[in-house]
Write a sequence for this structure.
C-alpha cells in the first residue's frame, strides 16, 4: 500500500492509462499531443497557459511538468509567476464576482 | 560560488575515473545502456561518416569557473597545449581534408601560443572557430585587442550566453558575467561581428542553467534576438542550443542537487533516432592539450581515447574514418530531444 496519494514516480507512468482502456487512451494522447503542437499559438505560449491552468486545477504532476516545459522554452521566472498570478486573479475574481449574487440575495431578503 | 575546480579540491568527480564509476552504474537507476539503444536501431557499432572538423582543446585554463563546465576548467588548471603539439596539429591539418578547425578550452586565448597558432592556421585557408567566453576580452588589457585579432583572421566567434538576464547567467557562470558578456558583445558588434552585411560570424551558445533540456532552438533564437536587441541593442547570427551532458562539474551539480536520476531518465526517454544518426563524433576528431585524440570533447574529459593510433603525431584520417566510436551513458545527452552538438541542435 502506498503511503501518500501523490507519487513523483507516477508522472512517468501517465502513458500507462491506456493499458486499461487502449482506444480512449490512444485517442486522448493523440489529442493531447496535437493540442501542444505549434499552431495559432506558439508552443511556448501553450506551455505558459498550461502552467497557469495546472495551478488552477492544482495538479502537482502538471505543475512539475509545465514548469520544466517553460524552463526548456526559455520562459523566465517572472513570466512564470505572472502566469500563476493570472490563475490567482481569475480564481479570486471568480469568488468575488459571486459576491454580487450574495448581495442580490441579501437585498432581496432584507427590508 | 567556488573558484576552485573539482580537480583542485580533489573531489571524486574531479577525476575521469570517478566520473566513470557513476556513469557506468546505470543498472542501479534502471537505465538501458546507450549502446543497446543504438543496437536496437541498427547504429551499433557507431562509425564515423565524413570527418571534416578538428576540434582542438588548447588547454583547461580559464578565467571563469562555470558551474556546469564539462572541462572542469578554471584559473588553477595548468594543462596547456605546447607550441610543439600545435605544430603537430598544423602538420596533420595540412595533409588532410579537414575543413574546419574549432578551437576550444578553457579560455583558448589564455594559452600563450594562441595567437601564433591562429596566425599559422589562418594561412591554411580553413574555417576557424574560436569558442570565446566573452569575459576574457575584458579580463586583462592584454586581451582587449582580441576582437580586432579575430576580425583580422576572419574567425568565426562562438560564445556562451546561457540566458538573456543577469540572474540566470550569473547563477551558472559567476557574478557579474552577464554584464561583462554584454559589454564584450557590444565591442564585437561595433567592429561588425554579428551584423548583417558583414562576413564576421558571431553565434551564441545557449545551454540550460539547471536540470532541464533545451527547448526548440529556432524558438529560443527568436526570443534571444528580441530580448538582446530590445534590452541591449545586441545582434548576433545564430543561437546554438546545447544540452548539458552529465560530465564533470555538471555531473557533480546533478548529483548534489538530487537531480541526477531524473535528468538521466529524461535524457533516455527523449532519445531521438534521427539525432542519434547525426551525432557530432561521426564528423569530427577532438585533440586534447597533450595531443591525444578523442571522439569528442566529452570523451576527452572522461579520458576515453579513440581506438587505434591515438596521438596527433600519428594522425591518420583513413584509419580514424574506420574506427568504432567509444560510447558511454553520457552520450544520451547528444541524442535527447532535438539532439545536441557543438554546432547546436541536430534535428528540428
Ligand atoms: S564553461 Fe567555458 S567559460 Fe565556463 S569555465 Fe568552462 S571553459 Fe571556462
Ligand atoms: S558524447 Fe561524444 S561520443 Fe558520445 S554521442 Fe556525443 S559526441 Fe558522440
Amino acid at each position: 500500500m502506498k503511503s501518500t496519494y501523490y507519487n513523483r514516480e507516477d508522472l512517468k507512468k501517465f502513458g500507462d492509462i491506456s493499458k486499461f482502456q487502449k482506444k480512449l487512451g490512444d485517442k486522448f494522447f493523440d489529442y493531447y499531443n496535437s493540442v501542444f503542437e505549434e499552431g495559432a499559438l506558439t508552443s511556448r505560449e501553450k506551455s505558459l497557459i498550461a502552467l497557469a491552468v495546472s495551478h488552477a486545477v492544482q495538479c502537482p504532476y502538471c505543475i512539475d511538468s509545465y514548469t520544466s516545459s517553460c524552463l526548456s522554452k526559455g520562459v523566465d521566472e517572472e513570466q512564470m509567476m505572472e502566469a500563476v498570478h493570472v490563475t490567482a486573479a481569475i480564481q479570486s475574481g471568480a469568488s468575488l464576482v459571486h459576491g454580487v449574487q450574495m448581495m442580490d440575495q441579501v437585498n432581496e431578503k432584507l427590508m | 560560488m567556488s573558484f576552485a575546480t573539482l580537480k583542485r579540491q580533489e573531489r571524486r568527480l574531479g577525476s575521469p575515473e570517478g566520473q566513470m564509476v557513476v556513469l557506468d552504474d546505470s543498472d542501479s537507476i534502471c537505465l538501458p545502456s546507450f549502446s543497446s539503444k543504438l543496437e536496437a536501431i541498427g547504429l551499433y557499432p557507431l562509425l564515423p561518416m565524413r570527418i571534416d572538423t578538428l576540434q582542438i582543446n588548447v588547454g583547461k585554463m580559464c578565467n571563469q569557473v562555470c558551474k556546469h563546465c564539462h572541462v572542469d576548467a578554471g584559473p588553477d588548471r595548468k594543462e596547456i597545449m605546447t607550441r610543439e603539439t600545435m605544430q603537430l596539429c598544423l602538420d596533420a591539418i595540412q595533409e588532410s581534408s579537414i575543413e574546419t578547425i574549432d578551437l576550444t578550452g578553457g579560455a583558448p586565448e589564455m594559452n600563450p601560443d594562441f595567437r601564433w597558432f591562429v596566425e599559422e592556421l589562418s594561412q591554411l585557408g580553413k574555417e576557424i572557430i574560436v569558442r570565446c567566453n566573452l569575459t576574457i576580452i575584458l579580463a586583462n588589457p592584454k586581451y582587449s585587442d582580441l576582437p580586432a585579432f579575430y576580425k583580422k583572421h576572419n574567425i568565426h566567434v562562438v560564445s556562451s550566453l546561457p540566458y538573456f538576464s543577469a540572474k540566470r547567467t550569473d547563477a551558472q557562470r559567476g557574478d557579474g558575467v552577464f554584464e561583462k558578456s554584454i559589454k564584450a558583445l557590444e565591442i564585437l558588434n561595433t567592429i561588425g561581428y554579428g551584423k548583417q552585411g558583414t562576413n564576421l560570424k558571431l553565434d551564441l551558445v545557449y545551454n540550460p542553467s539547471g536540470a532541464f533540456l533545451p527547448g526548440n532552438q529556432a524558438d529560443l533564437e527568436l526570443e534571444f534576438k528580441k530580448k538582446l536587441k530590445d534590452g541591449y541593442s545586441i545582434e548576433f547570427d545564430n543561437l546554438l542550443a546545447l544540452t548539458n551532458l552529465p560530465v564533470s562539474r555538471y555531473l557533480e551539480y546533478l548529483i548534489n542537487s538530487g537531480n541526477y536520476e531524473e535528468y538521466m531518465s529524461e535524457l533516455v526517454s527523449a532519445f531521438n533516432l534521427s539525432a542519434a544518426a547525426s551525432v557530432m563524433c561521426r564528423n569530427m576528431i577532438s585533440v586534447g592539450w597533450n595531443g591525444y585524440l578523442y571522439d569528442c570533447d566529452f570523451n576527452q574529459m572522461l579520458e576515453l581515447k579513440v581506438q587505434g593510433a591515438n596521438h596527433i603525431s600519428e594522425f591518420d584520417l583513413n584509419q580514424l574514418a574506420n574506427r568504432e566510436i567509444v560510447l558511454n551513458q553520457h552520450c544520451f545527452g547528444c541524442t535527447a530531444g532535438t539532439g545536441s552538438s557543438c554546432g547546436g541542435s541536430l534535428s528540428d
